[in-house]
Amino acid sequence: MSNNNRQAANGQATRTCQFKMVLLGESAVGKSSLVLRFVKGQFHEYQESTIGAAFLTQTVSVDDTTVKLELWDTAGQERYHSLAPMYYRGAQAAIVVYDITNADTFSRAKVWVKELQRQAAPNIVIALAGNKADLSAKRQVEVTEAQTYAEENGLIFMETSAKTAMNVNDIFMAIARKLPKTQDVSNPTGGRGRGNDGQSITVTRPTNQRVGGNDGGCCGSSGTK
């Protein structure tokens, strides 16, 4: 009998955790496309630039825990940079995205990482995504260079392609594994922990999209308000 079946037989509710995740990076690196691919399984060749920030939600399962991700897709244009702290404040996770065919976006990604390390929550889980891997023939940023940088800064790293879906679910799932599942509800931003790499993970499509949200990070039984 599976864990879920045993829980159902015992009448035990699956835990639910909610986390705030922000996506940062230069304009046109594919942040919105990554979110759209992860949440809806779609890709649009010509994606309009985000103004301010867009908000979507997605729910994933990590073993016996339902993880609700509040995804804040921020605008990459420089004129919106001053708004970024409003979105990453209180975030438990961040994906910093760059375009592998544009070295300048990788340099900019490093600036975002430093800003998060300096101003975001001290235990924020940060992932670095080298997007547009389907255009590897035009690459300007080598995998080894990005991998070394990620290791030196304690970042999750993957090259992704929103177009082909390469590693899109994987990078979000890698973050979900590292997010804490047992923190005190009364102290949602404390008690960070690492997940087990052997955890099983499934993805479900979003049931709602809304504007707004809280800092997330609360764990409790299903049905708990």
UniProtKB/TrEMBL annotation:
GO terms for biological process: protein transport. This is small monomeric GTPase. Pfam families: Ras. Keywords: Endosome, GTP-binding, Hydrolase, Lipoprotein, Nucleotide-binding, Prenylation, Protein transport, Transport. Belongs to the small GTPase superfamily. Rab family. GO terms for molecular function: G protein activity; GTP binding. Transmembrane segments: none annotated. It is an enzyme of class 3 (hydrolase). Residues 182-225 are annotated as: Disordered. It comes from Adineta steineri. One of its GO terms (cellular component) is early endosome. It catalyses: GTP + H2O = GDP + phosphate + H(+). It is found in: Early endosome. Its main location: other. Residues 213-225 have a biased composition (Gly residues). Residues 197-211 have a biased composition (Polar residues). Its EC number is 3.6.5.2.
